[in-house]
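Data deposition worksheet. Section B asks for the primary sequence of the deposited chain exactly as it was used as input, without tags or linkers unless they were present during the calculation. Section C holds the resulting structure in token form. Section D is free text for depositor observations; keep each observation to a single sentence. Incomplete worksheets are returned to the depositor.
Section A, Depositor: J.P.
Section B:
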Amino acid sequence: MEFITILLPIFFVFATGYFVQKIFDFDITNFSKLALYVLVPFLVFRTFYQESITFSYFYITIYMVGLCVVIIVAVTLLSKVYHYTEKEKCALILSCAFMNNGNYGTPLVLFLFGAAGMETAILLMVLQQLLMSTLGVYYAAKGSDEADGMGAALRSVRRMPMVYGAIAGIICNSFDITIGPLLNGVNLIADAAIPVIMVTLGMQLAKMKPQIMDVRKLSAAVLLKLVAAPLIAAVIVWYLPVDPLVKQIMIIMAATPTAANTTMYAIQFQTDPQMVTSATLTTTLLSALTIPCVIYFVI
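Section C:
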């Protein structure tokens, strides 16, 4: 029953975005840009501005990169076994290797642990965005007909304002630079980030139309993302010298569904967008069943 009280508010907000989009058919691009380029950078700045920078950040980075690489290797091996094309392999990587810890994971951690878990959640969100802006773009471009993976990835990273928000927050924190009453304005903008990105995910789900596709590929994406990913994360964090709360958050974040942004990359580069869209929608819906199981075993 406790799981229902945790997940119900999250899915209620998703559903609100879903039905609002069905009724009004908004241009979701503008909402995504508002969240990604305005609200989230302020949230990231506030986190790094107020929280102490510790060595655990280094271990969290190892975890994020390690989890992503292990899943990519698993997909590569699976693709060899089933003789998938490069496009199919890259689409499967986009569907499995990148977690939705922004729209989904961060609100989930907030409901589960309150403010105590938000520092870790936001750091994971920033690192995930960096991975999607580099490895994600790389594989999306690699699976396209006109591959420009590394160049596209580098250009994408330069356009990520949350990176600059993190840098500004770290500088202000490290050199004791205060922003005085401006912090009240920063708080107003930062507090709007999570509700907006949650509503935006619901709107994105309303635009997705699952297609008839290879059940084997979709099943592989679901199993790797919702079952294998948290198990791999548990193995990785077992050896990391970080706080137990941080370990719990990292495993729960790994169990979140496919990142919604990967759908945009797949569409942009035409890397089997039907596969990525179906995986995003399916893992998001099935996560209502798998996330409570992960929480039960982790907490």
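Section D:
Residues 56-82 form the longest helix (27 residues).
The chain has 13 helices and no strands.
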